[in-house]
């Protein structure tokens, strides 16, 4: 079964996004407190694909050892996942490109792991500000990448972008099926 992994800094809105995508409020727990989703959670969607909820990274108040442990944990996941089709890196649309996110995308790229970017909390910006922030982000990416990865503008509180993400995943799954049956 194809698998899609969701990851981002703590508090980026990952749990809320997962709740929106799965339409089940109780599925992933949200919290106002950073760093609460500690372990990997798998959700099976329509018996067609796995949504993988990876722990949030980059919260400030953790020791160096636990940061190392966490890195190991994440890299183990990415090295072992045969079924992983794509990762989704979540970034808060209000923020300028953050080194920790860019480094993480770099890591994915170097390891040949396809990824998309999910901009979260789009309800917090006006439409023209959204465009500007996305443009800035793309410009930053083009400094190191040849192409812009697929990206999605979402708001879990206003239910924006749900279909864009799900359509992308469903279309990708159909392509995979079609290739299999060739
Ligand atoms: P996680 O730590 O990445 O899983 O983030 P959560 O989903 O728990 O959200 C962190 C905080 O951001 C919570 O206070 C949420 O209510 C808030 N939040 C999440 N998504 C949105 C959104 O789309 N719009 C707004 N305005 N707030 C959001």
From TrEMBL:
Family recorded in the similarity comment: Belongs to the TRAFAC class TrmE-Era-EngA-EngB-Septin-like GTPase superfamily. EngB GTPase family.
One Pfam family cited in the UniProt record for this chain: MMR_HSR1
PANTHER family per the UniProt record, alphabetical: ENGB-TYPE G DOMAIN-CONTAINING PROTEIN, MSS1/TRME-RELATED GTP-BINDING PROTEIN
Gene field: yihA
Keyword list, A-Z: Cell cycle, Cell division, GTP-binding, Magnesium, Metal-binding, Nucleotide-binding, Septation
UniProt cross-references to Gene3D superfamilies, sorted A to Z: P-loop containing nucleotide triphosphate hydrolases (3.40.50.300)
Protein name, entry field: Probable GTP-binding protein EngB
Organism of this sequence: Winogradskyella marincola
Task performed by this protein: Necessary for normal cell division and for the maintenance of normal septation.
HAMAP family for this protein: GTPase_EngB (MF_00321)
Lineage: Bacteria, Pseudomonadati, Bacteroidota, Flavobacteriia, Flavobacteriales
Residue span, EngB-type G domain: 1-175
Reported cofactor(s): Mg(2+)
